[in-house]
């Protein structure tokens, strides 16, 4: 047997957001609250393509010379959720573009399949997310979907704290979930969505990490917009510290 080849910036800790976030964590980690982190892993082509890294084997995997998207069976968009307290990962693999609706659907699916059973009676949810992408701090659609799908439909009070751009390094999901998934499938071509899901589910660590993965075949439209009038209907309260990055969304009275 031999190994075969398969192929962040930070800011000062004195910034107000870093002083604010530990206080939020302390509040939300108590009794009825849940604390989780969400983010999208890089998109991957599905098919006979080289996957960076090395893996043990008797011979090299045969893959295409070029990574042309036209030769792919699809493009996978993995959105991950990491439960800090239980050291558990949840990954939803989608085939569409990485949209805010897809990101919120992943969070909702985690809550419906695992969250509410693991933490019965929880009414608050703290989400630490990157400042850009589908769950970006400036995304109106992300806030609207959080209001409709998590707050109104599930009756949860949701506090969202976004990392500033360039500070993904501090998001635990990068170090405790995505990094180990990448190590587990290093050098192994992602020939099908099922193969990808299997490699994600097989990810383990000595610290006890376990990961569940599901496939989402829904198609989400890109370029959705939320008007100023619609934004005013959200039950969203911005925090005094870094209000653009930190806010709480509560169920609207009509839906409470």
Describe this structure in words.
- The chain has six helices and eleven strands.
- By secondary structure, it is of the alpha/beta class.
- Residues 1-23 and 25-33 have low confidence and may be disordered.
- The radius of gyration is 19 Å and the shape is globular.
- Strands 2, 3, 5, 6, 7, 8, 9, 10 and 11 form a nine-stranded mixed beta sheet that branches. It has a two-stranded antiparallel ribbon with strand order 1-4.
- The longest helix is centred in the middle third of the chain and has 19 residues, at 100-118.
- The protein has one domain (35-51, 68-255): Nucleotidyltransferase, domain 5.
Q: Which strand-content bin applies to the residues?
A: 15-25%
Structural class: alpha/beta
Let me know the largest β-sheet.
Answer: 9 strands, mixed
Q: How would you name the CATH homologous superfamily?
A: Ribonuclease H-like superfamily/Ribonuclease H
Rounded average pLDDT: 81
Instruction: Please state the second-level CATH architecture.
Output: 2-Layer Sandwich
The succession of helices and strands, N to C, reads EHEEEEEHEHEHHEHEE
State the CATH topology.
Answer: Nucleotidyltransferase, domain 5
Number of strands: 11
The unreliable regions are: 1-23, 25-33
Distance between the termini: 60 Å
CATH class: Alpha Beta
Helical content, roughly?
25-40%
Spatial shape = globular
Radius of gyration, in angstroms, nearest whole number: 19 Å
